[in-house]
């Protein structure tokens, strides 16, 4: 623990990033048991009130407390991002390990499938899924998660290929270990730092993607608050209620900024040589 504390103290960027991320994660957790006001409560008398002691960040056109909505919106953004990146890791990493370990036609199939998915950005995938199943946070998770699969598959393959030429891997082959055991016991542990760093980057992109999907109306649906939808609802009221756009936008900026700082700090700590996968 002392070594970790010393590491954080010596890297101000990593410390700042971890602090921002921890702050929003804590905010999301607290929102399960407490919010400053009921996010679903409508208070006509307090509609479009500016920041005050009663409503710290003001209220929207229905009199709902903006700070409470941002707290619950953090829960939605983090959940969508974590599950979407989780899908990319759980499917993309095994595919990348398979491609690096087998080579030949299997590698070609995995890489060409990745190219096909890359041709459809998360927003396009979300629109296609929405057209069939309707809008919602789950469909946003699926769309963003599918887009993350080729990201991790290609990164894993690129980082794993050099490992397969190392002496200890050759020794494992000579000892009779099959490709699955070698990938699991020797390759994956050596590329794990690269995957951790990339996961933080993809988390920040997933937060932005979720906000974009909610902004156009195909992400999280009412009554669940969402940072992106809060921005969309504020665009006609910016001139006389600027806090409705400022605070949700600031929340997105600070959270994504924190994730990027965290990713850069982890890259310096875990991946000093900055291994870059073949893309």
Structure description:
The chain is mainly alpha-helical. It is 72% helix and 0% strand. It has helices at 2-10, 12-30, 66-102, 104-118, 122-133, 137-163, 167-174, 179-215, 227-234, 243-270. The longest helix is centred in the N-terminal third of the chain and has 37 residues, at 66-102. The radius of gyration is 22 Å and the shape is elongated. The model is unreliable at 274-279 (pLDDT under 50). Belongs to the binding-protein-dependent transport system permease family. It is found in: Cell membrane.
Which key features would you list for this structure?
about 280 residues, mainly alpha, MetI-like fold, 10 helices, disordered C terminus
- Number of β-strand runs: 0
Strand content: under 5%
The CATH superfamily appears as: MetI-like
User: Ends: how far apart?
Assistant: 37 Å
- In the CATH hierarchy, what is the class? Mainly Alpha
CATH topology: MetI-like fold
Describe how the helices and strands are arranged:
Blueprint lengths: L1 H9 L1 H19 L35 H37 L1 H15 L3 H12 L3 H27 L3 H8 L4 H37 L11 H8 L8 H28 L9
In short:
Helices cover 72% and strands 0% of the residues. With 279 residues, the protein is mainly α.
